[in-house]
Amino acid sequence: MFENILLGIGPLLSVNMLIAIAGGVTGGVLIGVLPGLTSTMGIALLIPITFSMPPEVGLAMLGGIYLASTYSGAISGILLNIPGTPAAVATLLDGYPMTQKGQSTKALALATFGSCIGGLISVVALLFIAPPLAEFSLRFGSPEYFLLAVFGITVIASLSGEDVEKGLIAGIFGLLLSTVGNHPLTGFMRFTYDIPALFDGIPLVVSLIGLYSIPEVIDMLTRRKSGEKIKLNLDESNPLRFFPEVISQKVNLIRSSLIGIAVGIIPGVGCSVGGFLSYDAAKRSSKKPEEFGKGSTAGVLASETANNAVTGGTLIPLLTLGVPGNPVTAVLLGGIMIHGLRPGAELFTTNADIVYSFILSLFISNLLFVPVGLFMAKYCVRLIQIPRSILAPAIMAMAVIGSYAIRGSMEDVWIMLFIGFCGFVMHFFAVPRAPMVLGLVLGTMAEGELSRSLSLIHGDVGAFLIQLVTRPISLVILILCILSLVQGIRQQIKKNSVYEN
Amino acid sequence: MIRNNVRGFNVFSRMLVMAAVTSLSIALTAGQSLAKYPEKPISMIVAYSPGGGTDTAARVVAKYVQPYLGKRLIIQNKPGAGGQIGFTSLAQAKTDGYRIGFINSPSIVMVKMLRDNVPYEMSDFEPIANIQLDPVVLVVKADSPYKTLADLVEDAKKNPGKINVGGDGPQSNNQLQLIVAEDKLGVDLNFVPYNGSGPAITSLLGGQVDAAVPSATSATTHINNGRLRALGVFSPESYKYLPGVPTIKEATGVDIPSVGAASRGIAAPKGISAEHKAFLTKAFADVMKDKGFVEQADKMGLPLKYMNPAEYSAYLEQAAAEAKKYIHLMK
């Protein structure tokens, strides 16, 4: 194996390779910052360009886009409260409050260093323990996925801020929206009103754009005359001075990375869930949970470290088994196959030079988005000082173009505006929006996997319930669900009693 | 007088020359514009998301057909609703020769049959060329007790409805193929839909289902590296990239129509001019013989299958007729 790693270093040192990585990372950062442009789209559109490149160079470029765009969704999230990619939704919870306090540079620095560290740790996992982890990922069947979705939904309380009740309302609204579209097993259309754009369900990225940008635009317009600007603490303009603070949170970094890697390995879960679960874990184990949602450094770090740790995790089943875990890696698989490479154990032996130089290139990409991101961030922080009467229409235009561009469909713009209106109502009543995203993401998974589990066991509900406790992995997740709920309820009771006193 | 005459002639002759030049240049440009279709890039609607199997195939074709078209072929993704959005937009596209589409059968006929109010008819399309044909393959895990298709059929007869078969779905070409096979073989299997052939294969690799019916392109790698065993391919002839795998007829002795095989080809909206159609037909026929294209397709494992407009139209009609016979079993 070590000789293979050495074999991979050779191609890595060529100028072409480094240019490809730099191009991929820079493009990826831009794609991630703009809501509506997703990693999947960026990679898909670039695959034809990689045709004519040697495979290791093409793959390194695609890898750079994937890692950089997963990270840079945080930039627009932190500065404007609009997530650039779904992965950044949990980052907003504390990132935007930090911006409001004038600490945007600090928040961006935390996100950048956290993403880099999470990404690096996950690539180490990919390099050294990929094959056994990949085999483990196959043991997840429908019952496990169902429980995993339920477990994800139990973190709603952590995402809710002050009012758990409001968080639950938002979560249930998200779950309700997730039932729109065809039934995952029968294809029966629900709440689609003969609108083809709704047949596949409410599109996630489109609804994220509406949910976060429309309320922001309305908010800006109502306050356009007031001269107050978001202050920018210029003494803190050097992002590098926050590095020691990042490193001091060792436990948080390692825990978040491990959660991210685990979520990544399990096919079909994805970066945003990694961020949510890690944020929840950080809040629960924090000595100062009351700081979360108000600009906690640990919160930003947890979410960003985890969502980038997912990237290395998703590549494990992809490269060792040819099993893509999320839309981005499914597209990457196409990019790998286009070069005539076939994922699997033999990829690591017959094409060892290519695959190892690809993996090693990910280290470089993870390191490279730090200067690129910080450089961009240096100028992006000025965004928040643009007069609202200019910024609001610009965001509105971007929201419309972004939601149209995804599928070239005007219906998606209407969906974006509808969800945006819902978001405004929620914002007005101070209902948190993150639980709704969680409901929308996990509702489809919970419903689909539950009905698939029941189909696999021929409709026998009793046998299904027995299965949940007799399958070892499902039992572990079930226990985690129960612990999560018990702790959540207990904290709530404690909080209520504090209020009463 | 003479000077005047000369001047007059001069003016007249100048006008004559100018008129001649003008008319000649008009004639030339008119001639050029007829000969020079396409004058600008042609856009091709793909009814699936960027990066999927259909999209990747379309992009490879687009790259290699460019020298034959003389202009770029630009992919326009219109994904959603199982292809309905993209197919509809092709059916309603302008017929100026600059809008064509990549269509998938039997999906395009199944969408029409399974749903109400689908705003296109099969007669809205003008088939140009079929590019590839991707059959469905029946696979089990390498350590499965089913060594042959006969083993599986025998077990299915003993335990009707108990064998779980994963596949792309619901209402996919893969499910249609399985339903037709069940009908012809007289067995009852439990089809479990996954979000695509990929996830269905994953669940088979993990032993969550007993068998799967993915598309041959997505299963080939796993079959060739020994993790999966193919029991039969739903195709009248053996599949190029799986030489040892029997066809379904060889495996069962029963004639099972390969209705689920996914064909991907080029079509224009009906009403495109005869010259444009002829030009496009030639360009796509030529690219199918292009050495670079064939090599690239081979490297990617794309099963190429050229059909000219007449053959392709007949194929689509037959696919629609076959699908119609069994579609009621899916509703």
Automatic annotation (TrEMBL), chain A:
Signal sequence coordinates: none
UniProt xrefs under InterPro entries: DUF112_TM
Q: Which keywords accompany this UniProt record?
A: Membrane, Transmembrane, Transmembrane helix
Taken from the record, one Pfam family name reads TctA
* Residues passing through the membrane, by range: 12-33, 108-133, 145-161, 168-189, 195-214, 258-279, 354-377, 389-407, 413-430, 464-486
All copies of domain DUF112, residue ranges: 18-438
Mind telling me what this protein is named? Putative tricarboxylic transport membrane protein
Q: Origin organism of this chain?
A: Desulforhopalus singaporensis
> Which classification does the entry list for the species?
Bacteria, Pseudomonadati, Thermodesulfobacteriota, Desulfobulbia, Desulfobulbales
TrEMBL record, chain B:
Pfam families linked:
TctC
- Signal sequence, start to end: 1-19
In its keyword annotation, does this UniProt entry include Signal? yes
**Keyword terms of this UniProt record:** Receptor, Signal
**Keyword presence, Signal:** yes
Q: Report the sequence similarity comment from the record.
A: Belongs to the UPF0065 (bug) family.
Q: What is this protein called?
A: Tripartite-type tricarboxylate transporter, receptor component TctC
